[in-house]
# Entry
Amino acid sequence: MFDFGKWTSAFNDWLLGTGMADWLAILIECVLIGVGVLLVYTVLALFYILYERKLCAWFQCRLGPMRVGKWGLLQVFADMFKILIKELICLKGTDRFLFKLAPYLVITSSVVMLACLPWGNGLQIIDWNIGIFFVLAVSSVGVLGILLAGWSSNNKYTLIGAMRSGAQMVSYELSLGLALITICVLAGTLNISELVWAQKDAWFLFKGHVPAIIAFIIYVIAATAETNRGPFDLPEAEHELTAGYHTEYSGIHFGFFYLAEYLNLFIVSGIASLMFLGGWMPLHIPGWDGFNAVMDFIPSPVWFLLKAFFISFVIIWFKWTFPRVRIDQMLSFEWKYLMPFSLANLVLMAVFVAFGWHF
Amino acid sequence: MSDIKDKILKIYPAAEFEQGDCLLVNVAEKDWHDFAARLKNELAFDVLSAVVGVDWKESIGVVYYLTSTSRAWEMLAVKVVCADRENAYIHTVSDLWGVANFQEREVYDMFGIKFIDHPDMRRFFLRNDWVGNPLRKDYDASPGLNPIRLEDEVNEDDTRTFTLDGNGNVKENPKKVFGEDEYVINIGPQHPSTHGVMRFRASIDGEMVRKVDVVSGYIHRGIEKLCEGLGYPQLLHFTDRMDYMSAHMNRHCLCLCIEKALGIVVPERAVVIRTMMDELMRISSHLLSFGCTAMDLGATTAFFYGFREREMVLDIFEKTCGARMSMNYNVIGGVVADIHPDFVKDVKALVEIMPERLKEYHTVFTNNLIARNRLEGVGLLRKEDAVSYDITGPSGRGSGWSCDCRKKHPYAAYDRVEFDEVLLDGCDSFSRYMVRMKEIEQSCRILAQLVDNIPEGDIRAQVPKILKLPEGRWYQQVEASRGTFGVYIESKGEKTPWRVHFQSPCFNLVGVMDLTCSGYMIADLITIGAALDFVIPDIDR
# Structure
């Protein structure tokens, strides 16, 4: 399996070989990576917007965007340029500083999370011993942005949307975290690249028996709620609160919320693929050496992206099938069912690991 | 009929009767409230079907239409004339029939008749700063009085009640709609879930709705006022533009009313075509309702499924009527054009495909656990309330009230087709929703019976070029998609009607929003609105 780490270290050696100071080389690398992450972010956002529009169209017996470019492929670019030239409107009575700060908080948290994902063999941007814990911590910053957006807009709809969002994200973060901890118990590490390597022989979903499968289901449900997507899209429940917390935003400020929402979909899918489906690790079946070697020929980023897109597909499928739940139903579902189940599942996993019942 | 006369004379010896298409009792204003209470309690007139304000020039007053559900839907009209034209007042009956609350506000708005002891006497359609009462015959319509206002209407929290003091003077008592510390949120007038320009002011406590105040009139077009200046054939096209999802039924109703007044016999072929068009319209309306309910609950995909089949109905309309909406198909004496050669084939295809498609809807939406939880037990409307607020149509039948006009006063071809009146007694949003789904099946059943039995013959009776209705008043009801639609015509023997009133079902539906939404959540308000399924132009007219 090709190690992209060779390229990056070769580039590093070349920079240092030119007689450059260490700090300058690191600075240049950081800037390059930063630009790269933002580019990937934009491209993925554009892809996801088209992906969802096409998928939802097919679910609904429609064609989706077809006019701009072949099969509507250029539609998202047209939309992007349109949103970039829109005026940023800040209404009277809004808290201008917080109002303008909020979208940046949301987008920052999602860009940082994107940088934590295992993009491929040797393509790990932020990699340290508390990796997955760091991801969870950063994801909570996004909630702050949503709450601020709702509060600073000075609008009753946005306030209700923000309150719903706060209640929802704080609640579902618990199940989400517990589902991930379950897998960390199995893996015995929080480090992202170690988590991937630990799935070299088989993915955690297959390794961990029943508790891993339960954790996967809980994770997908909680992740859907965390990204504010249907059937848990109450914070922006279009038919109740027009657009929820971002009602008053226009132009690229709205665009940031919109992008962050799509990218968060990718990120939770990416984390799901990391924790349950082996990250960038190809499908390996113990004993089938020939099969494993063939699988290794497919580049690792392709594996990662395909897995993430697949989980996203499932989450998009939810959204375009189910009606929206009500706030009390959503909260009681989390606190009465999902959370106790995840706790019990965590204990179950601990028992499995303690007795060595997993593969 | 004489039987009811005797009974009325027993409780009110001073009654004077007039015979029209139904019995009319003249009652003095001072006796009206007591008489109304006795009519309701002793003679079982439990439904107030219509409240029609009329200005007879020499006097002004209100004609009430009452229906008795227990006595074969017998109707009785009561005419109450105000003592003083300039300072007109009548005692309210909103304490007896809930539906009178909004109906009387409409009369107050249009005629300036004050209703004594009415709990909330505000204008219903027009702005608070509107000068004059448009339906009065002495209304000054000069544009200078009511210019196009460029400033917003003041958010009016002030309302009033009128009481009568010992000397017979009307006293105004100011009142507030909402308390000082209530958190009021506007749902509408521009809101995705009000299905039009409707505004609800909801007082909320967290996510809970405490009170809903209906602010209507954003698309009020003054159809009743317009009607007074037009000839009878010209009235017809307004009906398609009230409840546009019941266009055929509404127009059918007006045609029936005029035909009744003129004694025109409609050819059999036209009668059957009208019936079939009504049922196609009902299918189309209920499909739209299914789609919108699903969409308001967030199930966007189900919405498209409903629209896919609705398209077939609209295609049938397009071929025969030349339009997909506002079909303008019924005319006085029959229908405007014969059916398209493909009509029979297309209807058969629709009837054949619907059962399978309904199954699909149930799979994708009705049987979904989330949808069930959102609909069941939400927006309870007890049967007594449905009767009191005259909630007819699928919403009333979802509360177990048998109120189908097609069964109670059969018109057109409904007396010769077999169909069941769908009744469910859940009283909640789910029952209302399910009644609609089952009514689609019944409509298909009616269509299947009629499609092969369309008689040959004329499609239109011979009607004089200039129509003059004889002097008198007529009231006609049909079963529209959302409930009983009524037309009141009063004529003084001229080419134009003296007074036309449209009693629209949605007007009553919106009257129970406060009753059904209080104590539920904001999300439920949307669900309840979707399940009641009101169409705004039908309310505002």
About this structure: Chain A has a mean pLDDT of 85. The CA atoms of residues 114 and 267 of chain A lie 6 Å apart. The interface with chain B takes residues 56, 59-62, 156-157, 160, 164, 230-231, 233-234, 237-242, 320-329 of chain A (CB under 8 Å). Chain A has one domain: 86-354.
